[in-house]
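Thread: "does anyone have the structure for this chain?"

Original post by V.I.:
We have the sequence but no experimental structure in hand. Need at least a predicted one for the grant figures.
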Amino acid sequence: MSRVLRIYIGLYLLLSGLSLSAQNWVSYTTANSEIPANTINDIAIDLFGNKWIATSAGLAKFDGDNWTIFNSTNSGLPSNTVRCLAIGGNGHIWIGTTNGLAIYNGVGQGQDGQGNWHGWTIYNMANSPLPRNVVKALAIDSVGKGWIGTLGGGGLASLSGTIWNVYSTGNSDLPNNFIYALTTTATNAVWVGTNFGLALFNGSTWDIYYTSNSSLPNNAIRSLKIGEQGTIFIGTDGGGLATYNGNDWSLLNQSNSSLPSNSVSTFAVKQNDLLWIGTEANGMARYSNGSWNLYSTGNSPLVSNEILSIIFDSQNKKWIGTTNGLMSFDFVSVAQIAVSPESLILGENETYQFSAQLSPPNATIQNFSWQTGNQQIATVDINGLVTTHSTGIVNIIALSSDGFRSGSGTIQVTGTVAAPTFYPP
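Reply from O.Q.:
Generated one for you, tokens below.
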């Protein structure tokens, strides 16, 4: 790996108060790698695990060791300012730039006798119905239809084979002609995030959502993702992060959660209760089952608090695009908690110190909390010290801070006994 700066972190204290260990952050910048610019607008990952990186100075492909750089001089890329990326089922890379849309087959090299670049197809306002040359958002559905969101008042376009359709406020119910985010559903409908409203289009009818007719917290949409059971996640510019499952809305913002900013620029959804959220100026947050971990330049190796893109790879590693470089972050989750002792007999009004061991040993978050299954029989303090109160059987539980893993030991409280009895001995 050419001149890549690897940063291994032994211990960090996050804003949420959780201690982190054995974190593996890797930073890629123009100073330590071949990446062409530090402004990382978008990231996509192909079926082979290659990372395609949209920068302000060209397109980069990174296979984990080697870099391949595409620009307007050595390829068919129509502009070096690459705004967005999407990868089709056929492996073709759709590339949104400030000078049109490019589709690259991923393998073509060089030019033919007429100066055309092998493997590249370019669409712009001059040679196609593309409504504007500034392409801000891309999405590809399961049948290969591409959806193209433009800025500059051009609205939305779709391309399927050679068939174009263009949608604007003038010929459809599209709420606004400035398109910032797109994502497609399992039924090939498309969610459209605009600068003033959210739309769902199924090919014939539009459902429109504003703050005035729904629980959408802000009309300026900046990012969209589909979660489990078709739930739509909506990042807004000033209203926080909203979710909508077709019936009910929910909201995460600075007033009701630890979200570091209400301006949500990007996010990644692992499952409906596991999110990585990037903000416009206040760093990144991990939301997991009600628990928060916050990352910024002040408490982590994050190279910038302006987060532009986040994506998971097949190994669950996070790839993070910022205004000051690309980062990868290997977050290791807790797999198991072993509580000691597993079983214990005590008398009434006795105390005993329990302990817990998290595995794997390099789990990123080492914190856990203690709980009792029945406070009438026994209580446990924050350090695992158990006090018995009345006869009965009770579980003493150690719960990981993300709420996903737990372990327990059982206490049988009887009359007064001479000494505690352990099982196994």
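V.I.: this helps a lot. Confidence is low (pLDDT under 50) at residues 1-22.
O.Q.: and The two ends are 52 Å apart (CA to CA).
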